[in-house]
Amino acid sequence: MAPDRHVSERRRFVKLLGIGTGVSAGLPVATAAESHASDESQLPDSEDDGLITVPRETDFETTRSDIEAAIDARDLVLLETIDHAANAAEVGLALPPTTLLLFGNPAVGTPLMQDARSVAIDLPQKLLIWEEDGDVFVTYTDPQWLAARHGLEANATLERIDGIATTLEELATAQS
Fold it and tell me: Could you tell me the CATH number of the domain that includes residue 62?
């Protein structure tokens, strides 16, 4: 199990997003943010739910632009961009910058769904770019957590999961 500090950090993140606690598989999560943060006290809180949160040194718009360019430069398709802050503003509510990018590659995702159809609930891949108190973060679901959640165990599938993990970390930290 992750240290208690990470559990309380994850709970705060979920509250910040306003999505409640949801269901957790209770699996340990290694956060990429640990290796990227010089000051871990800046990391947000959330529940132990398989999320990896990476703090960024760039502002929100630069982070979004860098990540969109990195997605475009790879064999990935940006399927949808959801601007939650703009949607909130349309109903008279305030929300700091919060944008969800949905993207994927059917050649990568389809074999996962062939191994375990339930993984389709977690595809396409998503990166959440968000700002809190002037700090910018990128959050995504740990592919290792997804593999455990959906019982993906074949060697070829686990190699694919490792590749997805590398790609997601590279996207989350992309800079132009």
Answer: 3.30.310.70
pTM confidence score: 0.74
Among candidates 166, 135, 140, 174, which has minimal Cα distance to 57? Answer: 135
What are 51-98's pLDDT values in tens digits?
999 999 999 999 999 999 999 999 899 999 999 999 999 999 999 999
Distance of alpha carbon 7 from alpha carbon 4, whole angstroms: 5
- The residue assigned the tokens 């040194």 is 57
Give the pairing type, strands 51-56 and 125-132: unpaired
Domain count, the chain: 1
d(CA 131, CA 123): 24
For the chain, list the strands marked E by DSSP.
Answer: 51-56, 77-83, 98-104, 125-132, 135-141
